[in-house]
Amino acid sequence: MKTIYYTLFVIFGAGGFGLGLNYIKRNKSYANLGAVLTVIGVAVSLYLPVFSPKRGLILALAFGIYGFAAILFTINNIKPAEALRKAAKSAGAAAFVVLTLHIVWSWKELGRAPFQSLGETMIILAWCITVVYFIFEYIEKIDFTGLFSMVCALLTIGFDYVFTDYSTKNLPPALQSAWFVPHVLVYFLAYATLTLAVLAALGHIVAAMRDSDLAKPFDKITYKLVRVGFPFLTVGLIFGSFWGQSAWGDYWGWDPKENWSAVTWLIYLMYLHLRFVKGWNKTRANYFIVLGGLAVFVTYLAVSYLPSAQSSVHVYQ
Amino acid sequence: MAEGKKNNSSIYDILSSKGLAVVLFALLAGFIGLGTLILQNEPRQDYIQIYGSGLTGLIFSLKLNDMFHTFYFQGLLVAFACNLFLCAIKRKFTIANIGFHMVHFGVIVTLIGSLVGTLAGDGGMLWLDTGQASNKFMAEKGGSQYPVVFDFTLKLDRFEIEYKDEPEMSMGVYVNEGGEQMKYLATFPMKDGGKQPMPELGYTIETSLIYPDQNTKATESGAKDQLVVMRPPAANMEFPLDLTKLPGGPFKLDDEFDIIVTRYEPDVRVGEAGEIYSESQEPKNPGLQVTIRKGAEEETRWLFSKFPGHAHGSKFTDIQVVFGKAAAPSKDPSLKIKVTDKDGKTQEKIDNFGPDATVSALFGKIGVVANSKSAIGDYKSYVSVIEGEKVVQRHLLEVNDPLIYNGFHFYQSSYRQNQMGEYTITGIEVKRDPGLIVVFIGFISILVGTIWIFYLQQYLRRRKKK
User: Fold this and answer.
1) Distances (CA, A) of B179 to A193, B65, B176, B183, B364
2) Are B189 and A259 inside 8 Å of each other by CB?
3) Minimal Cα–Cα distance from B295 to chain A, Å?
4) Which residues contact B343 (CB under 8 A, 6 or more apart)?
5) Half-sphere exposure of residue A179, counting CA atoms within 13 Å on the CB side?
6) A residues 27-56 near B, CB within 8 Å?
């Protein structure tokens, strides 16, 4: 079953590649090939019975279209063209719409917000990454994150397919709270923003090593992303405390996941303060963004594997 | 003098510097991270198992097993608060800096509130059985327990567990690739009449539920009264009772014992003179009077179905007679797993599939493990607050819906079974935290200050530029 999803990715990816080649080679036959492959991909998605129930179909389509958009963004980055950029953005928007449909459908089928399991949160992360990309693209006119966004979304959806299991309808009593949706959503918007910040920070570090003119713009983007993401992190932390208090009478229980979310918050706090400390240039401060990204990874995924976390309420089942 | 003043200023500058703040952030992050890598507040044996005895000794001597209550961690928090305070008062109190001050003072206020709660607050568990009331709970602090008394009484009127309508069923599929163990493939949701194609393996798995009564989903059969005689190492003997026809018996045990049932009372009470009578005809405390004979010896005693332990104390020590209920015939369905390979050949397995059951089967190259899990939807306690003789408040206590009364917070936390195996006992977490309101003020200040600095202030600056 997983082979078929990857096959779809290849079909859509080839479709995008074909369209992209058209712009490079100025040869319409590539565009025609790309279009044919894309149509085949859609037809295969609709026809194959393994995609029922609908969850598989909609999510597989989103996966394929994200792949398509990623390829278009890649080619645009190599050889920029306005039409290609618009096509890439349109594909990204289409993927986002399909993914939103999947989330809405899941919510309806499960009878609860699809924010519980690791797989479900991976999908939410992909969705949030796309939201952040479009907001930054619209407000700040920052375009480079398009490719990163599509690739990140692709990887998280793919991770869901390959590594995680189905969703259960049951929501344990502790999660039956009005805080469930706002706490998780705010945190994943933070993770999405800060994931893109890590990529921008790496771009700055590499550009600074090469004395490239891109170092300053990358740094500016990094700072802007952290300025958006850090408040989400703060709000998520405080929402979690309010929830803990209403559920267990504990606004802070030194739970491993709570602790790592505090570590993540402190690392980004360090970055924000270091930018104003004499002797710390922006490149050195940006290393803390990368460290913060590692902390996000630990908080989200790795903490479940710590021995101290086995009795934690935050461990994904 | 000027030199002294300069030195004082530089000490003040260091203590209120961003550099020191960053160092403190790093130390806090390091200690907190370490506190997740090392088990916290677990039995010593667990540490030895994971870290070995040498490292365990070091962990315990440095108190890393209770990191967050060590003097050095608490000291770090104090240093953090002091640095925050000095940083905050260094900056002018203006409208432009309001976000800055809200965040910094918000953190300080939160830490103060937390300290007040730690020093002056109480917390612990209160366990109540249905119908039971209490005006105190056992609080825990610093490893010791002490009672905390309320000026009211809390009574558990009723405890309920809600199960989801259908148990959650799933099946894990494994494939034999020739290794020692089968390789796990995936887990799928399972339902009655479900079909799971596995085209890559060339199999289709169908599942269906078969109920005991073919026409209905459950059979009706009440549990019967019975006398159970335990005589280890022999198997128990069960004698069904008809309590409408007494005396019942004699029930014979290997020609050695005779048991005669002489009297039945549905709701046993003991009068002042020690006489047994029934308070009502409702079977609230069923009691059975039996006479046990062994040869020339004879004993008459009462047995109570709600207190099977009362069967002890008989002069016949080699048997134990208990008055109870027979298990009702199973209403659980059976699960039929049918696997069809690409050649159309089928194999089947049928097995009992009650709540929380697991059925596993091997079908050639693939293995299927089917699980049924009772899904708890919710658990809740109907409680009453009583002052004097009067019920002043009733509350439905659920997770995420605590009761707050007279400064005490009651949280639905857990539950357990009574002696009869029924879930009638609720576990309530009780908290009294005088610092809580201070902490919440701190949180809100941090929230508002953060939104001010990172969003509103930027927006206003942009507007001003335009």
Assistant:
1) 44, 41, 7, 8, 14
2) no
3) 58
4) none
5) 20
6) 49-50
- Tens-digit pLDDT profile for residues B366-395: 889 998 877 778 899 999 999 988 999 999
CA-nearest residue to A259 within chain B is: B32
**Contact yes or no for A263/A288 (Cβ under 8 A):** no
Strands (DSSP E) found in B20-91:
none
Q: A269 touching B, CB under 8 A?
A: yes
What is the C-alpha separation between A140 and B343, in angstroms, rounded? 60
Tell me whether residues A235 and B197 touch, CB distance under 8 A: no
3-state class of A210 per DSSP? coil
What's the CA gap between A110 and B282, in Å, rounded? Answer: 43
The pLDDT confidence band at residue A50, using thresholds 50, 70 and 90, is very low
Mean pLDDT by 10 residues, chain B (466 residues): 56 87 94 90 86 90 89 92 92 89 95 93 94 93 89 94 78 83 82 81 87 48 68 74 82 84 88 83 85 89 77 71 67 84 87 81 87 82 93 94 95 88 90 95 96 87 78
- Taking the alpha carbons of B449, B452, B457, B460 in that order, is the dihedral positive or negative? negative
CB-based contacts of B292, cutoff 8 Å, min separation 6: B257, B258, B259, B298, B299, B300, B301, B314, B316, B319, B321
Taking only residues 226 to 265 of chain A, the set having a beta carbon closer than 8 angstroms to any beta carbon of chain B reads 227-228, 230-231, 234-235, 238, 241-243, 245-252, 254, 256, 259-260, 262-263
- The two three-digit tokens of residue B8, written as one number: 């004082």
Tell me the backbone φ, ψ of residue A171, rounded to 5 degrees: -110, 120
Residue given tokens 């990358």 in the structure block: A218
pTM: 0.73
Interface test with chain B among A52, A239, A245, by most B beta carbons within 10 Å: A245
* Start-end of H helices in B324-466: 436-451, 457-465
Query: In whole angstroms, how far apart are CA A187 and each of A31, A234, B220?
Result: 41, 9, 50
SS3 state of residue B428: strand
Nearest CA in chain B to A50: B197
- Cβ contact, residue pair B399, A176, below 8 Å: yes
C-alpha to C-alpha distance for A227 and A222, rounded to whole angstroms? 9
The secondary structure of A129-154 as a DSSP string is HHHHHHHHHHHT---THHHHHHHHHH
What local confidence, expressed as pLDDT, does residue A287 receive? 92
| Whether complex ipTM tops 0.90 | no
Q: List, in order, residues 6 or more apart from B317 with CB less than 8 Å away.
A: none
